[in-house]
Structure formats: C-alpha cells, structure tokens
Amino acid sequence: MIKRIFSGGPFEPKVGYCRAVVAGDWIHMSGTVCGTDHETGEDTLDPVRQCEGALKIIEKALNEAGASFADTVRVTYVLPDAAEFEACWPALRAAFGDNPPAAMMTEAGLIDPRFRIEIEVTAYKPRA
Q1: Which residues pair with 2 in a beta bridge?
Q2: What CATH topology corresponds to 2-124?
Q3: What is the pTM of this model?
Q4: Sorted alphabetically, which InterPro entries does this protein's record hold (predicted)?
C-alpha cells in the first residue's frame, strides 16, 4: 500500500512531488525547506528559524503517516553555506532527542537562494 502526503506547499504542484510517501513500513520524506518564521508569519533568512520551521513541517507529515521523529532512521541536511549548520544543532537535537538517526550534511545550492537549509528524512514505522 502506498499513501502520499501533501503539505500544500507551493512547489509540490509546480515541480510534481509530495511531502512524503508512505510505502508499507517506510516513510520517505521529500527535502523540506521553510523560509517563513512560524511565530511571526514573516519571511526569514535566519537558518535556525528556517530549520525549526522545516522540522515543524516534517513533524506534521510524520504524524500524518503515524510516526514521529523517534521513527526517523536517516536524515540528510543540505545547506548553501556549511558554516551555518552548527547554529542549527540545538534545534536538531531537540527534535531527534534520544533517537538520533544516521545523518549526512552537504553544502549545495537550493531551489531558492533565500532558503538556508533543506532537510530530508526517511523513517521506519512497523505496522501494528
């Protein structure tokens, strides 16, 4: 069984993808960015605020798939400036807590230069 989860983001229909695909016990999450501060609703260039926003979008999709950050087995971080990654570590530790996934960080350009971090996760949630 395959289930597709959409977040309603503007790039989903433009590019032709969904936020996540649940395939059996596996949850494959698309790369997620967030250029909006979730508290103020305004655009932000702060990589930490963008990281926190992307994590909220990811958490919502994981929950919709019946999972949580504790079920994440792999995460990839992409930043246009690797020097900005360390400032995001506290938010990432808070999200993954005692269940850290295997991880990788790479430096590369993102779809929009205003985006400072993109996060992709894979989770495993055995059916009950």
Answers
A1: 23
A2: 60s Ribosomal Protein L30; Chain: A; (3.30.1330)
A3: 0.93
A4: RutC-like_sf, YjgF/YER057c/UK114
